[in-house]
Amino acid sequence: MSVIVGNSEFRPLPNNPGAKITGVHESLLQECEKDIIWYRDNFFGKSHQNYLALDSPRGPLAISVIRDADTYKALLRTTAGSERLSVSSSSIPTSFVRRLFGLGPSTVNLMEGISRNIPVRSLRMCKEPNLPNELLSMEERQVIRSYKFGVAYVAPGQCSEEEMFSNRNENTSPAFKQFLNFLGETIELRGWKGYRAGLDTSGSNLTGTHSVYTKWQGYEIMFHVSTLLPFIPGDRQQLERKRHIGNDIVVIIFQDSDVPFQLGSVTSHQNHVVAVVKPEGENYRTIVAPKNGVPGFTPDLPEPCVFGQDAVSRDFFLHKLVNGERASYKAPSFAPKISRTRSVLLYEVASKFLK
Amino acid sequence: MSVIVGNSEFRPLPNNPGAKITGVHESLLQECEKDIIWYRDNFFGKSHQNYLALDSPRGPLAISVIRDADTYKALLRTTAGSERLSVSSSSIPTSFVRRLFGLGPSTVNLMEGISRNIPVRSLRMCKEPNLPNELLSMEERQVIRSYKFGVAYVAPGQCSEEEMFSNRNENTSPAFKQFLNFLGETIELRGWKGYRAGLDTSGSNLTGTHSVYTKWQGYEIMFHVSTLLPFIPGDRQQLERKRHIGNDIVVIIFQDSDVPFQLGSVTSHQNHVVAVVKPEGENYRTIVAPKNGVPGFTPDLPEPCVFGQDAVSRDFFLHKLVNGERASYKAPSFAPKISRTRSVLLYEVASKFLK
């Protein structure tokens, strides 16, 4: 074990002896992307009903409902997330009188049949033709297509965050440079047109001259590399470095040291997953430690958790980090922020169309 | 030069001394994906006009038109491809009488203003509410999300296609096995749930027990590896191998031989891009030779064209191959097939809605 947990909030994940290092076999779609596909395939461009609530016991919400043969399909969007629902039309009661007039179930019966806890009394139907577009673009705004991961170099003899931010790039080892090549491409920041992750690309080099970047499975990943960020002599905390890496949800610690790393020295509230990578010859022994409250995430780590530098190992490692960031959004420390964002987006749409 | 061109149809691409090995910086969107985005963003879910032709001087076609402020936007779908068009409404003549009645331009004036050569007389407007969905799904069916590339092992002393198909897997070199690891993951075919590229995944092992696969930038790539396909003793041509690799548009030749490879020995009509990879220590010296008629494709090859085994080199190499396959679709030997597919798809939609 090359980390010390102490009273840190981070806990190393157990290795799973049945797990294997594989490439990406599963779908990488995010929940909001699945919502978009569900809405596009089943509702958009077809005659369907939309209900909005500006202010309900569950906050602002938007519900889309369509009857498709013997099934009612619905997309229920709340501040907590979206639910894709299907119910048989026979399970929804329709009064004798409504049936007599060839009508479907009442809104109250329909909503209660689709899902419990829909605040029916707060809903208002909205027939504005532009609403479906707005609902879709609201979901689109939640799709995350870029990631920023911190990478910190821990020199021989070091074991804490403060020490690691003090390292100069010219003093890093060849193994670290090789690891950066494993992660991605060293790009020049001046004039960089891709995802910049808060780095200065104006040519003023305020955040260093180069960074490490990759496009992986269609996602852009920028690495905030501690030793490529500016070193300010005399600044004990190296705030210019901590400002970026302290704001990353996932941080990779490259442990070029035989002293166990103190997880307790990682104190930023934003950091949720720490991956400690220790070079062993050409391989990387890896520990992944999520913060308390981050739910489990795939892929499971093998036993021993040692990666090569091959393409499959790299896919596995980046897959674990991307999923670690996605799982972090659900942590109690993070979920309220996501929920607040959804709340604002839902409120914007509802207030625009329920004038 | 480690290939002999002779009277082959393949011509090695020149190296570009200004080119660099980089990761994927540009968009990988296919033209049909750009068409889908253009239609979704500008037409779908909004009030717009669709015109169909079942049989016109340009074959079946479908045109979508929308007025957006002072601009007419159109998507013109023909058997040759789609055009995304924008024209200022002021450039389209509208007769005095039509203006008097608050009408827009006539269909003839509109179409002539949008693009020359639209066979206006063949068009019929279609207001079926389900048409936009069908137009979108027609485009969706043209998006290619999976690729199959051939990989053939050329043993020391060999120089032709026939020889290379005769190699047994147990006689390949460690360098070749390392190259397969560079390309992707060796997966078991039995029960494989991903893209299978025509291979047998039933468990009968009719096409061997394993293959090499990767998910790259969201695309699935299956490699048809010559020595992992069944070896049939006594079959001089090894048709079980040639049947798969001969049907691949892109074929990688792993040249474990100092004898120059004879490009003329690659005779399959389907093969359009040959990449000859020669191991040099831990690196790969590479020649990419497209067939006559394949238009140019990015990224440019550097001088010297030598790749490492790092992630950036791999991204560059796979990027070149994917773009090589995409460029091949435009070759005279291939374009008619693509055009015929589009023709069938357009005819299906037009005949369904112009009953």
From TrEMBL, chains A, B:
Superkingdom, natural source: Eukaryota
Gene Ontology terms, MF aspect: GTPase activator activity
Pfam families: Rap_GAP (PF02145)
GO biological process: regulation of small GTPase mediated signal transduction
InterPro entries linked: Rap/Ran-GAP_sf (IPR035974), Rap/Ran_GAP_dom (IPR000331), Rap1_Ran_GAP (IPR050989)
Lipid biosynthesis found in the keyword field: no
Sorted UniProt keywords: GTPase activation
Boundaries of every Rap-GAP domain copy: 135-349
Protein name listed in UniProt: Rap-GAP domain-containing protein
